[in-house]
Amino acid sequence: MVDGKINSFEDLNSWQEAQTLGVQVYAISKSFPKEEIFGLTSQVKRAVASVSANIAEGFGRRTLKDKLQFYTIAYGSLLETKNFLYLANKLTFLDKQNLDKLLAQATSCQKLLNALMRSLRNHA
């Protein structure tokens, strides 16, 4: 970031928070049962990776409509991630303390992504 201006997707707080969430989810999912490697483990990792990837891709798009489309997809992937985390908790793959930690990170990302989309809409 130069002079407070966002020059790349790496400067976006929403992308940074999504990356943090991704690292946390990948780390905690290592403890999921091995028989879930192609099930819930794979799904939650795919969903969380999609969040930051779509923020990055959206940043690179030229039109407001395209940017918002990718940020909206990222938001959907974030909600999908939260769903899988709740499910992992109900299946006892994820304890309440780790669930709360991951949901707090997801909520932080959600707020930043909402602010990013709102900002774009307001400057249209």
List strands and helices in order, with pairings:
Layout: H1 13-29, H2 40-60, H3 64-90, H4 96-122
Helix pairs in contact: 1-2, 1-4, 2-3, 3-4
Q: What do you see in this structure?
A:
This protein starts with 12 loop residues before the first helix and ends with a helix. It has 4 helices and no strands. The radius of gyration is 15 Å and the shape is elongated. The chain has 124 residues and is mainly alpha-helical. Helix content is 74%, strand content 0%. The mean pLDDT is 95. The protein has helices spanning 13-29, 40-60, 64-90, 96-122. It has a single domain (9-122), classed as 23S rRNA-intervening sequence (de novo design (two linked rop proteins)). The relative contact order is 0.16.
